[in-house]
Specification:
There is one protein chain. With 311 residues, this protein is an alpha/beta fold. The protein has a single domain, classed as Metallo-beta-lactamase, Chain A, CATH 3.60.15.10. 30% of the residues lie in helices and 21% in strands. It contains eight helices and 13 strands. The chain has a seven-stranded mixed β-sheet with strand order 2-3-4-5-6-7-8. The protein has a six-stranded mixed β-sheet with strand order 1-9-10-11-12-13. A hairpin with an 8-residue loop joins strand 3 and strand 4. It is globular, with a radius of gyration of 19 Å. The protein binds zinc ion (ZN). The site of zinc ion has 6 residues, from loops.
Length: 311
């Protein structure tokens, strides 16, 4: 059984005593055009010429936790979250790469027909481009924030970024939760990279041992303006507070561009992990250090944005 609980409804339920409070629920290299998203999200940079090539971009799907797999490509992540009541895809890739995700789901032994939700970290083509097809083919429900629905539905600045626009579906707001089978996700709106970046946290299990995974939905600094940079800094500061929660630190960093969270490097360490070794994705101190680096990079950007604005 699936249950999507908008924060407002949850607050009303809590007020009515119906729902227990609390609910159920590297190097970031953000300025490197290969490691981050292409400059201005475009394809003109020769370094990123192979971004759309499904062969060059192909990655064998791999298991990260008992309930989480990587089914993305080299430059954009896509995660498969397995629950007792169906599958959730986090981001959807785009163009020919959608087949890589679908093939990956099958290779891992799951049926794409069991996809119940596709949750989109933000409305740029590389994350949202596959949603219409997944809605169509499998009846998966698509969720993103109101601002990024608007972004995804708007004609793009560059025709290269055109996508099949999904049917307007779930609008996710800050504080909402989604429960599917044994899994609950909690959502945070963390703007900056776009106006409606969606971040999410959910439990992952390593041989049954639970960890708190967090996906910051908009790491890249390829956006403009003092206001947006301040929003980004506020978002990072907020995640830093969440990460440091007493007794419940965020200990797993999942990035929506693999290189921003050293996903493949950790994946290789995981593949050669010996019995009793720590899980390479479980790293609460590393997460705090990573967030501090994001903050420093954004503070540098803010100086430049202020100069540009004549402040
Ligand atoms: Zn983006």
């Amino acid at each position: 059984m699936a249950r999507f609980v908008p924060a407002l409804a949850a607050a009303l339920l809590i007020a009515a005593g119906v729902l227990a409070c609390g609910g159920e629920t590297s190097s970031p290299a953000a300025d490197d055009p290969v490691d981050a998203e292409p400059a201005s999200n475009g394809h003109s940079d020769p370094q990123v010429a192979d971004l759309n090539d499904p062969v060059a971009q192909r990655v064998e799907p791999f298991r990260i936790f008992d309930n989480l797999y990587y089914v993305g490509i080299r430059w954009v992540s896509c995660y498969l979250l397995v629950t007792t009541d169906g599958l959730i895809l986090i981001d959807s890739l785009y163009g020919d790469h959608i087949d890589t995700a679908i093939d990956g789901i099958r290779t891992l032994g799951y049926d794409p027909a069991d996809l119940k939700y596709v949750l989109v970290s933000h409305g740029h083509f590389d994350h949202v481009g596959g949603t219409a097809r997944l809605q169509d083919a499998y009846g998966a429900r698509v969720g993103m924030t109101a601002a990024d629905w608007e972004l995804a539905e708007r004609p793009p600045d560059n025709p290269d970024w055109e996508i099949d626009v999904p049917v307007h579906d779930m609008v996710i707001a800050d504080g909402d939760t989604l429960e599917l089978g044994d899994t609950e996700l909690r959502f945070y709106v963390t703007p900056g990279h776009t106006e409606g970046v969606l971040s999410m946290e959910f439990p992952v299990r390593d041989d049954g041992e639970e960890h708190r995974a967090f996906l910051f939905g908009g790491v890249g600094l390829n956006f403009e303006g003092v206001h947006r940079t301040n929003l980004y800094l506020d978002s990072v500061a907020r995640i830093r507070r969440l990460a440091a929660e007493e007794g419940n630190p965020i200990d797993v960093n999942l990035s929506n561009h693999a290189s921003m969270g050293r996903i493949f490097e950790r994946g290789e360490q995981l593949a050669s992990r010996a019995e009793g070794d720590p899980h390479p994705f479980v790293d609460p101190e590393g997460y705090v250090a990573w967030l501090a680096e994001l903050q420093r990079n954004a503070e540098k950007k803010l100086v430049g944005e202020r100069e540009l604005a004549g402040e």
